[in-house]
Amino acid sequence: MDAVYRLVATSTAVARTPDGWVAENLRDGVVTLVVDDGGLDAIDAAARALDQVAVSVLRREPGSEAQEDAIIAFAGTMPLVWVSAEFSRRTRTWARERGPMTLLVPASDALPAADLARIARFVTLLSRQTD
Known about the structure:
Layout: E1 5-10, H1 11-15, H2 21-25, E2 29-34, H3 39-49, E3 56-58, H4 64-75, E4 80-84, H5 89-98, E5 102-106, H6 113-130
Parallel strand pairs: 1-2, 1-4, 2-3, 4-5
């Protein structure tokens, strides 16, 4: 089955999800990591949370605006879940104009239970649309 959505998040946010949450909730999408202060250790922990021996990592850009542009380009026409510590006004406008295809989740560390539930609902709805 082809991917239904793309999820971009810091490696720390993915690594600190509850055991089994990623495998249960993110199986129909492509998960791509953004390198954060956790470095390679956080990427390794995220790969283990994803139960993958290799993971996709988004390249780093010089500055937050360029990094947001890279994520927007990566999203293309696919639905997107984007977890980040903050979003610029320009990114929030882009997401609003895309409509229901985009879920922005502000989080700088581990995702709170409420955000995990929002993401799970969003990706479940997307997955059902392709059945």
